[in-house]
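Let's practice the habit of predicting before peeking. Look at the sequence and jot down your guess about where helices and strands might fall. Then scroll down.
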Amino acid sequence: MSEKESLIEAILEIELEMFLNVNPQKTSTCQEYPESFRMHRRAQFAPWSSETLSSYLEDLQEAKDSGRNLMRIKYARMQGLVEGGETSPLVEEILRLSLGWQKEMFRKYPGIMSGARPLTDEGEAERMTSFETYARGELETYSVRTLESLRRDMAGVQERGGNWSEEIYKFLVEKSGCPSLDEAERRQRAARQP
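Done guessing? Here is the structure:
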């Protein structure tokens, strides 16, 4: 196992524990599928550097040691139950980049993205939180140190003309047994044709 994979596994161990304890009185349907949670979180971390992963792992360990559940905080913020957290301008900068990349995914891969969260709060469906709200809720749980490192990672992807969201979805489709995003898109379109 590489250093990066080890960091991701350590993160997932803490995150899953937090995720399963978001609301001790009520279990959500998504909590019944921990392996799906692990796969989707691995995909989220696929473009991150080891430095950023290490910083976030430190955030998680500090939160755990102080009795804070970052997943509970994230979901409470997404639902408007508590005020926002980290107010660094980095949150808005990272969110702006993320929205741009996600918008490009909708343009290039409409079939793959047909079941994705709506991009912004304006497009928020009654039963599905928007990408913008979800991402903001998560980013606000990161330390400034982690946000700075994540922004550097994103700047590197941006400089080489890459797409952060595409790297995440590429990881997901490959782990699901599909060789590429283009093939996954072709299969989605074929499945929708009568």
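How did you do? The chain has one domain: 3-192.
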